[in-house]
Design brief:
Length: 408
């Protein structure tokens, strides 16, 4: 496997575009389109929030069916959530506009929105945006970059990646982009994510791979503990790599596909966590030596979502008691007198706690380690063979500033 350029357009047959539709933002692009020149199979995972945005309901019906997909239309600025019948009608109108312009079926267009909850979409601007997007589709690195920028809200950087690997002697490519910065919490995290690949695979295995993967990637990140109404992760596979179709979950080809999918989603997950609103550092929590995989996940997420721990990371303070506290209220059983806690980063590694007590570490050395852009807490429970990793960020003054006046 190698990382390549091209983002969402890296795989054969995929195009993208972006446009300024003035949905909410007046000085930047705010709509994007992804298009496959041949019908693609799709799979999706969506928010666990009981309150689901109109595009989530629209997309889930399509990705859960045997319907092929050609296009995804995304807007930023307004979420089209809590908009009831009018919001669903606007989904239908948007899909029809895309279908007419692209010459595809109405049900082959997926939709995604992100932004302020409770506002109705300016459907005239949406439709004008779709027309512009349809007329400017390109298969290029530039188009992919622009699409990734257009779906941002409070993100400080665009997020994209592409890889190339081999299946059945054929080169296969996978590209992806996502957005997410605030209202991020596991199961799923708050984000919009899109993956395109030219692999030839059955719909059943595409869905299985995606759902199995998010458990250890997007479901393991948190910024602020809020689960959105709009979370969507969608993958399209158009088969143009012309590899022998993957239909056996026990095959080496399927394992290769899953490995590369995991690489892509892990990279995107870390991008989102590291770009948390106001964040100055990516905070990674690794739990090792747990009795079960689920226990390791629960413990890691408990630490990464702890506001007090996140504040300590912002202050470069090795306040290990907060981590022990978060582990202790996770609901999982472990022996605090038979575990170890380390902090590490590019600046070094230091043992903080062992067998029930602090080891008397050097505070200045710990502060130096915690001053890096990416810091890690490693918890070794010494109880079993399972591990899990969660990602988050520090909690800063700027998080309050950003969210206090988000609507304005």
């Amino acid at each position: 496997m190698k990382i390549i350029k091209g983002g969402i357009c890296a795989a054969k047959g995929f195009f993208a575009s972006a446009t300024e539709a003035n949905i909410k933002y007046k000085d930047r692009t705010d709509m994007a389109m992804i298009f496959s020149k041949v019908p693609a199979i799709s799979a999706g995972t969506y928010t666990t929030n009981l309150v689901k945005a109109a595009p989530v309901l629209w997309d889930r019906k399509i990705t859960d069916s045997e319907t092929y997909v050609n296009a995804i239309v995304i807007n930023s600025g307004i979420a089209n959530a809590c908009t009831k019948d009018e919001g669903m009608e606007y989904c239908k109108m948007s899909a029809k506009k895309a279908a007419d312009k692209l010459g595809v079926g109405e049900s082959s267009t997926l939709l995604a929105s992100t932004g302020v909850i409770g506002m109705q979409l300016p459907i005239d601007r949406i439709c004008a945006g779709i027309e512009s997007l349809s007329n400017s589709l390109e298969q290029s690195e530039r188009a992919a970059n622009e699409a990734a920028k257009a779906i941002m809200t409070t993100d400080t950087v665009s997020k994209e990646i592409a890889v190339e690997f081999e299946i059945s002697g054929k080169p296969v490519k996978m590209g992806a982009m996502c957005k997410g910065s605030g209202m991020i919490h596991p199961n799923m995290c708050t984000m919009l994510g899109f993956i395109t690949t030219d692999v030839n695979i059955s719909k059943e295995l595409l869905l299985k791979a995606l759902r199995d993967d998010v458990v250890d990637t997007f479901n393991m990140i948190s910024v602020d503990g809020d689960t959105s109404t709009n979370d969507s992760l969608i993958i399209l596979a158009n088969g143009l790599a012309d590899n022998e179709k993957i239909v056996n979950e026990n095959s080496e080809e399927y394992k290769i596909f899953k490995h590369n999918l995991n690489f892509v989603t892990t990279a995107l997950s870390k991008m989102i966590a590291g770009d948390g609103e106001g964040a100055t550092a990516l905070f990674e929590v690794v739990v090792k030596g747990a009795k079960t995989k689920e226990a390791a996940r629960t413990l890691a997420k408990s630490v990464v979502t702890s506001s007090l721990t996140k504040a300590a990371i912002f202050g470069h303070d090795a306040n290990w008691g907060r981590i022990l506290c978060a582990l202790g209220y996770s609901g999982e059983k472990f022996d605090p007198d038979n575990m170890e806690l380390y902090f590490e980063s590019e600046n070094g590694r230091i043992l903080i706690y062992k067998d029930g007590v602090s080891v008397g570490f050097d505070e200045k050395e710990a502060t130096k380690i915690l001053s890096a852009k990416e810091v890690r807490a490693v918890v070794d429970l010494n109880m079993g063979d399972f591990d899990a990793t969660a990602w988050g960020c520090d909690l800063t003054f700027d998080y309050i500033k950003i969210n206090a006046d988000y609507r304005s």
